[in-house]
Amino acid sequence: MAERGIDVSYETIRCWTLRFGQLFAQNLRRSRSCSARWNLDEVFVRIRGRQMYLWRAVDDEGEVLDVLVQRRRNKPAAEKLLRKLLKNQGIHPETITTDKLPSYGASIKVLGLVDRHKPGGMRENNRAENSHLPIRRRERKQQRFKSQGSAQRFLSTHAAVYNNFNVQRHMISRSTLRKFRADANAVWMAATIAA
Q1: What is the pTM of this model?
Q2: Does 9 have pLDDT greater than 60?
Q3: Of 76 and 14, which is predicted with more confidence?
Q4: DSSP annotation of 3
């Protein structure tokens, strides 16, 4: 907007995000494919003084597959995340790596994916553990989330946008980084124009 000489307030941006964010995120998710090796993890978040749990699924390349904010850290919550993943991803996983939380094992057993489950310690699930870091940074900047619904909306939208623009710049050359950034911008333009 500044590029075009238009001055807008933070509140305007917030309203646009609420109105168009989910639509942009859906368009971005449609244009991406994921790996069949999934890592699941949960972390607590404080919402209005109450402890809630942020369940996340990440593939082996670091792409956030799905996010779910729940009040509990039990079998129904884990099962809800897994059902949502299986429905939205369109592929069945080769492996599902989790920490040793018993809720994962129980819900995976109900869904018949026991042969694909790989319960491991912290090291095997580092990909999911590290995916919480960008969210923690955003949470601090926003001075915490205000409600479970707004946290769910923001986090699912943030995951799709973050997946599109996150490039491991330390692993590639400068010219390749420019190409990846141009590709990400082209995907972003296609996703926002379609809205």
Answers
A1: 0.74
A2: yes
A3: 76
A4: G
Q: Nearest 10 degrees: CA dihedral of 9, 11, 15, 20? A: 50
DSSP 140-170: HHTTSBS-HHHHHHHHHHHHHHHHHH---GG
Please state, in angstroms and as integers, the Cα–Cα distance from residue 179 to each residue in 111, 161, 168, 184, 186, following that order: 41, 18, 13, 9, 11
Interval 115-150: pLDDT, tens: 988 887 656 666 666 766 777 776 666 667 788 888
The Cα 7–Cα 58 span in angstroms is 37
SS3 of residue 187 by DSSP: helix
Q: CA torsion, points 33, 107, 123, 169, in degrees to nearest 10? A: 20
Q: Which two tokens stand for residue 79?
A: 């099962």
45 touches 53 (CB < 8 A): yes
Whole-angstrom Cα distance, residue 77 to residue 90?
21
Q: Using the Cα atoms of residue 173, residue 178, residue 184 and residue 187 in order, give the sign of their dihedral.
A: negative
- Structural domains for the chain: 2-193 (3.30.420.10)
